[in-house]
Amino acid sequence: IPKSIREAGVQEADFLAHVDKLSEDAFDDQCTGANPRYPLISELKQILLDTYYGRDFTEGEVAAKKDVVATPKAEKKAKKSA
């Protein structure tokens, strides 16, 4: 199984040409409203970019971003791991 969208053979130029539309489509998807916190389109775009390039997800990094609002549970968990 490829570790990234790039490793699956998608050309970078093709992906970048469509990433904004993909982000908007993900935001408009009916499942998005079921999330505990409604994501920003910019956050969805970042997830797609990280997935394309195969960047690993580290939970503490998301809470460090200024535009991300952490839930009290996430803040408590972040303090414990620090």
From TrEMBL:
Protein name: Bifunctional acetaldehyde-CoA/alcohol dehydrogenase
Biological source species: Salmonella enterica subsp. enterica serovar Altona
Lineage of the organism: Bacteria, Pseudomonadati, Pseudomonadota, Gammaproteobacteria, Enterobacterales
